[in-house]
Design goal:
This protein has a single domain, classed as Diaminopimelate Epimerase, Chain A, domain 1. Helices cover 43% and strands 15% of the residues. It contains 5 helices and 4 strands. Strand 1, helix 2 and strand 2 form a beta-alpha-beta unit.
Length: 145
């Protein structure tokens, strides 16, 4: 499954996460699996917890979840960020990403989502002087369990 993103693309995605997180106390993760065996938001919510996204100090984690073969994805944020972003923010972020996905530019779509989430996190949760990276910036490739 890592073949979806070659090493260079994985590096670009990781750098986009690092750049976004350098401006915020928020945390962004990417989670990828082949198929989604339940409603997409439910699946994303399970991985949100499994990856510890719900454990950030300020409740400002954002997960971009992709199910490749099913061509489904979701973006979810923790309670801290969800209380602050406009109601349609995650949907508008998804729409921006879909434009790239339709052109088979998956990495560019993911980077766009990261950048948009990072901008909002920076607005509401600017980086603190003693901020620490709470979660890995690597893509989480899941085996569907």
């Amino acid at each position: 499954m890592a073949a979806l993103f070659n090493d260079q693309e994985q590096g670009i995605i990781r750098e986009a996460i690092e750049a976004a997180e350098n401006l915020t106390s928020g945390e962004i993760r990417i989670c990828v699996e082949k198929t989604c065996k339940e409603p997409t938001l439910d699946r994303a919510s399970k991985y949100f917890q499994k990856l510890g996204m719900d454990q950030t100090v300020q409740k400002n984690g954002v997960l971009i979840y992709l199910a490749l073969e099913d061509r489904k994805f979701a973006i979810i944020g923790d309670t801290g960020i969800n209380q602050l972003v406009p109601v349609d923010f995650w949907n508008s972020t998804k729409e921006a990403m879909v434009g790239f996905f339709k052109q088979n530019r998956m990495a560019d779509g993911v980077v766009t989502g990261i950048q948009m989430a990072g901008e909002k996190l920076n607005t509401y949760f600017p980086r603190l002087g003693d901020d620490q990276n709470e979660l890995s910036d690597d893509i989480a490739f899941m085996d569907g369990n």
